[in-house]
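Dear colleague,

As promised, here are the two records you asked about, laid out in our usual form so they can be pasted straight into your sheet.

NAME FIELD: protein one
SEQUENCE, THEN STRUCTURE:
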Amino acid sequence: MASGKVNDVRDTGSRSLSSIIRSNTLTPFNALIGTLWVAMMIVAPWQDALFGFVIVFNTLIGTIQEYRSARTLAKLSLLNEARPTVIRDGREVQISLRELVIDDLVLISTGDQIAVDGDVLQAAGCEIDESLLTGEADPVPKSTGDELLSGSFVVSGSARYRVTRVGSESFAGRLTLQARQFQTTSSELRDSINRFIRYVSFALIPVGALLTYSQLRADQSLPDAIRGAIAGVVTMVPEGLVLLTSIAMAVGVLRLAQRNALVQDMPAVETLARVDVVCVDKTGTLTAPGMSVQEVVALDGSDPGRILGALAAAEEHPNPTMLALAKHFPQAGSVQDAVPFSSARKWSAARIADRWWVIGAPDVVDPTVDTGRWSATGARVLLLAVTDQTVEADSALPLLTPSALVVIDQQLRDDAAETVAYFLEQDVALKVISGDNAATVGAIAERAGIPGAETPVDARSEDPVAAVERASVFGRVNPDQKQDMVDALRGEGHTVAMTGDGVNDVLALKRADLGIAMGSGSPATRAVAQLVLLDSKWSSLPRVVAEGRRVLGNIERVSDVFLTKSMYALLIALATGVAAVPFPFLPRHLTLISALTIGIPGFFLALMPNAERFRPGFFHRVMVFAIPSGAIAATTAFSAYYAALMLDTVDEARTDATIALFMVTVTVLAVSARPMNAIRAAIVLSMIGAFLAVLFIPPLSQFFALSISPDPEGASTVAIGGLGMVAVLVTSRFVSRWRDA
């Protein structure tokens, strides 16, 4: 450690407080709004520079929220971090990744991910999946002297290796990044918002120049011309939408963390909302952890107890099945040689008293043996067979003589049926994909209430990829087929979530839109997944999916009002430029309307419950709403302003324009908040009450430069605003059809 040969790898997923402050402060939005803020402070009263405080609040809220989330996630990541087993002072100890040093002796077994590079000193049936490094999924056998690279993981057997490279000299520093680069989480929401921002950015300079020119033509002084131009340009920028999106996602991540769900990739929150197919394994997902031996049926009249105990004891790193055998048969014979279990082979073997004994799936070890009576009950059945010929891991099994059937009891999780019912109610399809016997998987799935479980597909006799769209339950599926099935579902336009806890699930997890790993699963599955259920409870998924839907459904809701603002600001600016009249609003007027119809209600709406599934086409749906709504708002406000300008002063006309614009935009808010409930109605009504307070309480009306009087022009303003409100309500009915087109 003193010489720097320690595995000092920084977590690229975490950020320091200083970097969080920088990322929330030094943004294009802050640069743009900040520049306009300074200019406004120079040429106008400070009340007209209120929009600049958005920078301060945005930065503070964003920094505080992200820092809180980062601290929570850092604690969870520490709990989830892989801890390699090494030999120190002659003892096996678990250490953190950062404590690994050159020449450490590391012990690895099935499911472990290689943390740092090294050379194999001793191996026992060790096979490594290097797909994260090479893209090849076929396991690579490793023996003494072979090199191990971090980023790969053990699919079978065990080994001991000596560390040769650590830190930046090895793959360890890029371990998590490599796993995620294989399948980057896409974000339609983020891409759509960025696209709209680019469109608005192209219009800022020409519109600002047009406004400045038109204000000078309207006999405004240079300071007033600049003030009007800034008012128009600032309103076009949806400065709060990006912040609100980030806050909503950060709050979603934090809420999931409080439910023991670790989000390792922020856009995964969005993917949660779009999921319409969930692929699950049987073992550990539908069934409860742990197994027990229910029955042993001797086929040759012998007592297989000592043989079964020896086979279980021969596994250095036993799976739950072997643990059940070891518990039931504590007396074991001596083993001369062994082939460890592999999920690809579906069997293990040991040489006992010069004979080779094989235990594994009956339909793999000897398909002639009938196990239907037990498989139909959902039990796991193993076949014990014997041969005098040598059994090798990389060779086909020789002719075997059946000796006994071992029936393993698997209990359905108490909450499995309830979880299945939730997904079916939410129109989410479930696919049970397992390596177990198809009849066994079908029996368990049927007990859980999964439709179609009575006709499971056996992947050996029927192509599961071709059947994945119509069928729900699949047995005897190998890891490559799982991956192909996920690809097929995605190819049909589905958004697929894949849950898994074993090494055989890694390939499918990487290819799914959302990989979900169990906290008790192998380090390899946790490394490639975007979401880790730390409590390993599948029943947590409904709450996880609901959180994603809440976040994304609400972001679309508030995007409607944000982008409507950008549209009416652009149209009002163009109309003002063409008509060459003083700008219809002071900056403080637009700040007031934005705060009451967008900023304040948007913050609350973004955090409210919402169970609607997020659908593709976000940009289309929002623009179909924002363009006509923005056009109605701009037409209403400019009509009220122009009509008042013919009879009243500019200041009074600006009051009329502000009232008319508020009437339309608060209607847009109410439409976006539908379906209305007591809380949403209270939010909308409180915003109306706040606006009326500004109009009728003298200190507030003076502060915002709004004067109202009972004159004919005021009545016409209310009438024009009322027509705008009706137009929004009528248009929204047609828009609801176009949005789904």
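NAME FIELD: protein two
SEQUENCE, THEN STRUCTURE:
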Amino acid sequence: MHWLQSLDVFLFHWVNPVLSNPLLDWFMPLCSGNRLFAPVLVLACGLLAWKGGARGRVCLFMLILAIAVGDSVICNSLKHLIHRPRPFLTLPDVHMPPSIGRTDSGSMPSSHAANWFAATMVLLIYYRRSWRFMLPGAVLVSFSRIYNGVHYPSDVLVGAILGAGYAVAVVWLVDALWQQAGQRWFPLWWRRFPSLIDIRDDGPNRAPAPASPNPAQVAQQWINLAYVVIGTQLVVQLCFLASGIIDVAEDEAYQWMWSKHPALSYYSKPPLIAYTHFIGTGLWGDNSFGIHFFPPIIAALIQFSLLRFLVREVSPRAGFWIVALCPAIPLMAIGNILMTVDPLSVLFWTLAMLAGWRAVRDTGTTRDWLWVGLWSGLGFLSKYTALFQWLSWGLFFLLHPPARRHLRRSGPYLALLVTLLCTTPVVLWNYQHHWITVKHVAEGGRLEEAWSVGSLWVNFTRYTLEFVGGETFVLNPFIVLPVLWAVAKLWRQRPRNPLLTFCFCMGAPVVGTYFLLSFHSRVLLNWIAPAVIPFLCVGVIYWDERWQTGDKRCRPWLAAALSIGAVVEVLLHAPRLTEKLAGRELPPQANALRRISGWKETAEAVDAVRQRMLGEGKPVLLIGAHYGITSEMALYLPEARARIRQDPLVYCITANQPDNQYYFWPGYREHHGANAVFAREMGLEMKHVDPLPEMLKAEFTSLKDLGFVDVLHHGRLIRRLQIIECRGMR
């Protein structure tokens, strides 16, 4: 094998640096990636989907599937398995153009070559003449990887063979699956396109559509397609989380710490999030997958419940569209992979809403109301926003007089009683802790500050516009605008559609309250999360009714919304794909996933200082300046995880008053004479360290500031820490 390595190095040096010159130094980095590539790619995909007919859309689907599977699963796994250093890390005199970034990720195989040859092969299958421009492009991009000094020739060759191979395999497997399942699940579509390889809109392979398709078959196809979307999303999300690409976010690690200290409630949140982490990590261990296990499950439950609801109350097509649009909302897409209180809150709010619609119907029973109370109670145990749902009921009774007859029955009052019973653990815990949660929630909304007319305009420009613009972005503007149109039309209806009115009322109090609060203080974008599903239902129901009357103006909006959603999903599941497309490294401040990356390296950087101090013969503890970094160190250091319940290794800095859950747990002051390592995260742009904390000065006999410690993730700056050696606890 040594002669192969020698040949590889010889061929590499034949290109790099022999062929280097100023012109190629400018041109070759552009071939690897440039800022125009991403918008051109999006435009090309849009044209293929819009003008390419059925063949174009199937081709686009195969392209996305082949590249997604190949880049994130096959190539990424092989890089980690082989772990071949890149040429510039091992060879002398490697020429690299100035614009090329350095990374410590594996060199074998080349993902650029694999992706380009995969795309070339898929396009060749569907458009035979595409090789005329795709093959030269793939070869040029592959050659540029050698010229730029980031890959050996064998990396490129293996990537090209792999990409072409798995592209053919993906197309063949999907077509084989279509041959087996398509005829049974989608008979009408299968009759038109019995093969997904030889698919032509006007060719002999296309059978004419039946003049009058069976309505039952059409309805069942919509339902089956929704099941495919739910199942595919669930499998993809679980596989992605199992890959370990993302770390645990600070709030997730913090709430995972709660699960190690069971209680009736906690400082800032109700207890259900801790119990959920307890179950997830009990099943899969104290790791990223165990903590992230439930969000995809919750998302699937929400979509399945909405599908059944809309199929029964509206139409199967409406059921499919709400299933397809849920992951197209960035706020919901984030909730599908991060285990915070929001997924639980949205789940129980949705279940309470669906049970509530059954309860207010003529066939509603007391049992239905009891379910409303239980789901609302579990929603309160997830997030305090659930109390808004009772305002939603009040608004519905106000706007829909026929529903008021239920106020003369026991059902609503029993539901309220069940909800109040569910609040008992939180109320009892807060009573024992001087109502600290009430104070925390009031401080979060700055409710202790007086409202003033003079500050309204300032707050409007500072907070309200931020709230409106931010929500439009995180909810997908191509979904927000059609929903607002549907809401406006709802108010003009006489009489109003009861179901539309009900869904509107289930979301309006949340959005309205936080919109008004934005005139006073900053509102976080996720606070309205429970209202997203009700308003989405309003939009889907309204536009499905219009569709049935022949008004299909929503089609471009649906296409745009799903396109935005697809882009968001790709960026969430392939966080480095943006850099590959643009050919540039994102600055750390612009990396949206920085908060869920590099925490293992962060914990190890702090522990390295601790290991050195252990040589002095005294116990050494770890102290975090914030609950986030404290919890991350407790999660990602094996010794800290093992000692989390008894004799903890990691603590949060002492506070004079409650400001997080660590205040209520035993602190580090009982370890008299011990040493410690204090760590706090600093801004990446900071040039000077902060002064030593006064609390540490009072608690230890001596402090030594080590200054900045830069934490690298895949060879890139991800976090900057200030680390202080603390000796002699008083």
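A couple of things worth noting about protein two: The mean pLDDT is 86. Residues 265 and 429 are 6 Å apart (CA to CA).

Best,
R.
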